[in-house]
């Protein structure tokens, strides 16, 4: 699936046309259609990913699911409230998670499962 195909799929999931997405993003008509034959700048790719709340890796075809596992500012605020008064290591970990890509988050999750399993065995 091409970059344009992925954008079209995401637009369809929202019940919108490519032209609707272009208007929402402030692009001129056919801007996204041009991605069928040109590569976007990193800034454009990030803007599209932000618009659809997906990862740039999904748009580039590096991962198959559009879900973005990053935390929104609202989520971070809620999590911080939960751990208010707890060790600052919790907050530091939460803030660092935002900087990881999907594969890194999965690897970290796998490591946590191994650590928990070892802890439960002892």
TrEMBL record:
Cross-referenced SUPFAM superfamilies: lambda repressor-like DNA-binding domains
Residue ranges of coiled coil: none
Stretches assigned to the HTH cro/C1-type domain: 7-59
Pfam family, one: HTH_3
GO terms of molecular function: DNA binding
Gene3D superfamilies linked to this entry: lambda repressor-like DNA-binding domains
InterPro entries with a match to the protein in the record: Cro/C1-type_HTH (IPR001387), Lambda_DNA-bd_dom_sf (IPR010982)
PROSITE patterns xrefs: HTH_CROC1
Designated name of the protein: HTH cro/C1-type domain-containing protein
Organism: Enterococcus caccae ATCC BAA-1240
Organismal lineage: Bacteria, Bacillati, Bacillota, Bacilli, Lactobacillales
């Amino acid at each position: 699936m091409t970059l344009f195909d992925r954008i079209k799929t995401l637009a369809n999931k929202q019940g919108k046309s490519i032209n609707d997405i272009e208007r929402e993003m402030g692009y001129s008509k056919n801007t996204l259609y041009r991605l069928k034959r040109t590569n976007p700048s990193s800034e454009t790719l990030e803007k599209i990913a932000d618009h659809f709340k997906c990862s740039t890796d999904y748009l580039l075809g590096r991962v198959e699911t559009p879900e973005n596992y990053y935390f929104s500012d609202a989520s971070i605020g809620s999590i911080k409230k939960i751990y208010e008064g707890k060790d600052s290591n919790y907050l530091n970990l939460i803030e660092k998670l935002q900087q990881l890509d999907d594969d890194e988050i999965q690897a970290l999750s796998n490591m946590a499962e191994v650590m928990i399993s070892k802890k439960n065995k002892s």
